User: Fold Transcriptional regulator WhiB from Nocardiopsis aegyptia.
Amino acid sequence: MWNEKMAARAKCREIDPDALFVQGAAQNRAKLICRGCPVRTQCLAEALDSRIEFGVWGGMTERERRALLRRRKDVTNWYELLTSAERHYERERTDQEAARPVGVPTAAQR
Assistant:
């Protein structure tokens, strides 16, 4: 599912790719690059679906991805699962905002 259009929107396109293929504590810094990336979910799904073994993808290290794959052997299409979960989350968030009385600040505004 990963394509050139998604790659063009990725936050990491602006950095040295080697920054995502590090070890140890440097992986935590690499994961920060993924925060706020508009294609983070699709990137992670690609890494999981393709069983990419190295680097930080979608904010997860190879060790984290391996652990997730072991825990969820039943998943055959990570792209479908993750994008569906993302849409569900967005719908719930929108519904909660619509139900909030006018003038009541959100948690982020407090």
